[in-house]
Amino acid sequence: MTGLYNRRFFLNTLEKEFERSKRYNRALSILMVDMDHFKYVNDRCGHLVGDKLLLDIGNILSAGLRRMDVCARYGGDEFIIMLPETTQAGAIAVAERYLNKVKEHNISAICNKIKNISCSIGISSVPESNINNVSDLLKSADEALYISKNSGRNRLSVYDSKSYNI
Fold this sequence. Notes:
166 residues; 46% helix
């Protein structure tokens, strides 16, 4: 529906890129992106508008990515982006751009019952974090996303292996 890769393709690609990253001690970051209050959009405007919004957000997230980056729909209103050769600082810069672009999206053009939308983002990076496998990389990004959601939404959080346990 969004024209993005699916979860299975993403996970297969991430597994290969993670191994390459570990072998050559190269940076790798992932962003887990979740739409804030997406259920409210579906409830107020209907599922067709929700589907259109998912398509729009997919376009926002995939625009400007490098050929080596991978953006996928992870499930429901959640997206995931793999950024090879990208440090934690680089991933933060990308995530900040996404927060602004999503906030600037004119949702009232497709549903005048809602004025604005936002997203929350969790970031996990190697080698900055002491992560040894793809499963832990995903869990850590999910944990950072959870912190963003519980800290008021419309923000990013970065997983730090010194501060949180997987």
